[in-house]
Write a structure and sequence with these properties.
Elements: H1 14-19, H2 24-41, H3 43-55, H4 64-76, E1 80-83, E2 92-96, E3 101-107, H5 121-135, H6 139-142, E4 144-150, H7 159-166, E5 172-176, E6 179-181, E7 196-205, H8 221-235, E8 244-251, E9 262-271, H9 274-295, E10 298-303, H10 315-327, H11 345-349, E11 354-355, E12 358-360, H12 371-376, H13 380-402, H14 404-412
Parallel strand pairs: 3-4, 3-5, 5-11, 6-12
Antiparallel strand pairs: 1-2, 2-4, 7-9, 7-10, 8-9
Length: 426
């Protein structure tokens, strides 16, 4: 039976059994040290990459420079690179090794509009790339097929969901990445999660008329947009504290002397479970329907992005990660949690055993998605944290591959889209 800290089981591994020389603990120690040294060997080049990404931010589906720079570095580390994975021009798959257990390190590199890398995706990319480069020389010994999968458009667009549907994660038995956050968030990912989020556009259609000569002949779509905002604002008082609704008017008229015949409101709903999300969405939808009824406008509501599902942290992988962080001297007692936030890694975690730790940057006192955090993401302490994460990611992969009991579960959990058995994530 698995323990809460599987890295401490000391179980003998397939690698140790084959050589007859090392115990499982010996193999872990040797390969852990080897991958740690590998991160150091690549440190200067990965640091240059992360700084370049920060200095040249690119938004969702436009990350051409980032994808080119990352794949060039991975190719130089012995990876075979496929560009345009899943039909997405800025996606890629870099592969090393040919073992039966397929491991995916997810690489994010899109920035936010106007405020750049305020979510630290330059650090996410650097951590995954450094871990991949450090693991590559040991892929065959570990019996893994190692994939660094470039996943564009996490902030908006659901790149991982599109890649999952296109088959980029077929055969993957475990998937990993990290996410930097402000200081004070716990380093033990076990039991942590993220919110489901769905994004939509509500369009009201009315009838244009001269605002002075014949306003009574118009049907004001902008009024409907205003009423919908008021209704949602009042609804918030009745919502559970961990649910979120955000919106803005994306279209609201063209000139002051024209009754607006069209208005659009972009909105999103977030909740920590899918049933709660479904209930919230229905309540918000009724706010828009009521506004349309009151103003006599016609309403259509359409999704603008794929649904992001809640994140499921694999408990075994969380145990391996926690052990790696503890060995680096980090406090891994359960600490603060994020109050909200979403990731398309949640969709991966629903079907593949996954790990997505929240990684606190020491001293970072600004929230993510702020100009201040964008500045923090380009500081020495942030890059030190990035390499610490890379070592822990590599060590987690080593432990997962070496531990015989858990390795077989990951092999059996390889993702299939053909309706067959999917991964057991908890």
């Amino acid at each position: 039976m698995a323990t809460n800290n599987p890295a401490d089981t000391g179980a003998e591994t397939g690698i140790g059994a084959e050589t007859g020389a090392d115990t499982g603990a010996d193999v872990r120690s040797r390969l852990g040290a080897g991958t740690s040294s590998g991160v150091s060997d690549w440190q200067d080049r990965v640091l240059g990459l992360a700084r370049t990404l920060h200095a040249q931010p690119e938004i969702a589906f436009h990350e051409t420079g980032a994808a080119a720079a990352i794949t060039e570095l991975l190719a130089g580390g012995g990876f075979t690179v496929e560009h345009g994975t899943g039909g997405l021009p800025t996606a890629f798959t870099a592969t090393a090794g040919s073992g039966e257990l397929t491991v995916a390190l997810c690489v994010e590199y899109d920035a936010l509009p106007e405020i750049g890398h305020a979510c630290g995706h330059n650090l996410i990319a650097g951590a995954s790339v450094a871990a991949a480069l450090a693991l590559a020389p040991y892929a065959d010994e570990l019996g893994i097929t190692l994939k660094a999968i470039g996943t564009p458009a996490e902030e908006h667009g659901g790149g991982k969901t599109l890649l999952l549907e296109a088959g980029a994660f077929d055969g993957v038995g475990l998937a990993l990445m990290v996410h930097p956050v402000q200081d004070g968030i716990g380093r033990n990912p076990a039991g942590s999660t993220s919110q489901a989020v769905g994004r939509y556009r509500a369009v009201f259609r009315g009838r244009a008329a001269h605002a002075a000569a014949a306003p009574h002949q118009g049907v004001n779509a902008a009024d409907a947009a205003t009423l919908s905002q008021v209704a949602v604002g009042l609804l918030r008082q009745q919502l559970p504290g961990d649910q979120r609704v955000a919106l803005f008017v994306s279209e609201g008229g063209a000139a002051t002397n024209i009754i607006p015949e069209r208005a659009a409101v972009d909105f999103e709903c977030r909740a920590f479970t899918l049933p709660e999300y479904g209930t919230l969405l229905e309540r918000v939808r009724r706010c828009f329907e009521g506004a349309a009824l009151a103003t006599g406008t016609e309403l259509t509501v359409e999704a603008t992005e794929p649904l992001y599902e809640p994140l499921v942290q694999d408990e075994v992988l969380a145990g391996f990660w926690t052990a790696a962080m503890a060995s680096a001297g980090r406090d891994v007692t359960s600490g603060g949690r994020l109050a909200g936030g979403s990731t398309d890694m949640g969709n991966i975690s629903q079907v593949i055993p996954s790990l997505h730790p929240w990684l606190s940057i020491p001293g970072a006192d600004a929230p993510i998605h702020s100009h201040a955090f964008a500045a923090i993401a380009d500081t020495p302490v942030a890059y030190d944290t990035m390499f610490e994460a890379a070592r822990a990611l590599a060590r987690t992969v080593v432990d997962a591959a070496v531990d015989t009991e858990h390795r077989q579960r990951f092999v059996a959990a390889a993702h299939r889209r053909d309706g067959g058995e999917e991964a057991v994530t908890t």
